[in-house]
Amino acid sequence: MKIALWQTQPIHDADLALGHLAEVCSRAAAEGAAIVVTPEMALGGYNIGPDAIRGLAGRADDLTDGVARLARQHGVAIAAGMAFAGADKPRNGVVVMDRNGREVSRYHKTHLFGSVDACQFAPGKALSVPFEMGGWKIGLAICYDIEFPELARALALEGAELILVPTANMMPFDTVATRMVPTRAQENGVFVAYANYVGTEEPFTYCGLSCICGPDGNDLARADTGRVELIFAELDRAALPRHGHIDDRRSDLYGPPNKSLPK
């Protein structure tokens, strides 16, 4: 399966963002990609304040329909970062449409990053449930989520072979892309696709470095630090390990979460 990651500057007009996404999907389809992954909150911007986020969340149905139309028009699946309404605050989410414009998964970010997330969003209440697409089992995470090894491990234990990660990662945290993301791939024997922003949303300067890492932790594709790009990689099922860390875990020693270690 061929995958495309859209590394872009934040676009604060959601309709304009959909227009740019249409161009990206057209190019991705021409290159034979099966799925396009956007950055976090690609439809309207990330660090834009609670009022603007609420406005985007109020348009979630309309924007989701727009993503579905693009998927049908171009014949590619899309994992798009956007805001969804919540009972208290909006949710920072990602929706996945298959190539026929059918919604196959929706996930809300569970690990909120600092005050920028806390003032704009409420945390999701559940991890992504891996779903089937094109013969692959796929899980979802959003930005800060992937920095928690437990989350990636949980997805891998549920059978995920590929984790899609819409991201808005800023300096000085570029080592997340260069060290942590490859580690998540290797320690779980999965592919990880990490789609980031470039440019600025004051006070943040985004670090780019969008990447697609293989189950051995090596880059299959990596973007620059400061350029709008569409990067591609071909994922080969033969690269998935037949035996790895998952098989050798000593869960009998770790105990349940938060259990005190023996003295």
Automatic annotation (TrEMBL):
Keywords: Hydrolase. One of its GO terms (molecular function) is hydrolase activity. InterPro entries: Aliph_Amidase/BUP (IPR050345), C-N_Hydrolase (IPR003010), C-N_Hydrolase_sf (IPR036526), RamA-like (IPR044083), UPF0012_CS (IPR001110). Gene3D superfamilies: Carbon-nitrogen hydrolase. Transmembrane segments: none annotated. The keyword Cell cycle does not apply. Residues 1-237 form the CN hydrolase domain. Pfam families: CN_hydrolase. SUPFAM superfamilies: Carbon-nitrogen hydrolase (SSF56317). Belongs to the carbon-nitrogen hydrolase superfamily. NIT1/NIT2 family. This is Carbon-nitrogen hydrolase family protein.
